[in-house]
Amino acid sequence: MSRKKVVAPIEYSRKAITPIDYSGLQSAFDNLNRVLFGGELPDVFITYQRRAHSGGSFSPEWFADCINRDQRYEIALNPDGFIGRTNEFIISILVHENGPSLAAHVAQSS
């Protein structure tokens, strides 16, 4: 009878990156919305998606809320384009993708 080897759980010495990274993006979005767009932008779902030759993209009503099934806008940012770039560059992509978000929101409200 052989014994199964017990593997100890992985211990991370650093804080989890997901909440740190995404909370930074949410804070940036909220600040940009307030300062540049007067708070007019609807809430969006910000994701990381790799797409060749793209810094990011906007998709209207792409994300569906799991509980209420509400349709939400999505801004997808390509993390491959962030390598060696400044935070200002990354924020500029977020600003760029908020333009279509505002246009779609205004068109939907009309």
Descriptive labels:
2 helices, Zincin-like, 19% strand, 3-stranded mixed beta sheet, alpha+beta, 110 residues
Chain-wise SSE layout:
Blueprint: H1 17-37, E1 44-48, E2 56-64, E3 71-77, H2 87-109
Parallel strand pairs: 1-3
Antiparallel strand pairs: 2-3
Helix pairs in contact: 1-2
Describe the structure.
By secondary structure, this protein is an alpha+beta fold. The protein is built from 2 helices and 3 strands. Helix 1 (17-37) packs across helix 2 (87-109). The longest helix has 23 residues, at 87-109.
**CATH-assigned fold name:** Zincin-like
Radius of gyration: 18 Å
N-to-C terminal Cα separation, in Å?
Answer: 73 Å
**Percentage of residues in DSSP E strands:** 15-25%
Based on the structure given, which CATH architecture is correct? 2-Layer Sandwich
Shape: extended
Give a quick precis of the structure.
Helix content is 40%, strand content 19%. With 110 residues, it is of the alpha+beta class. It has a three-stranded mixed beta sheet.
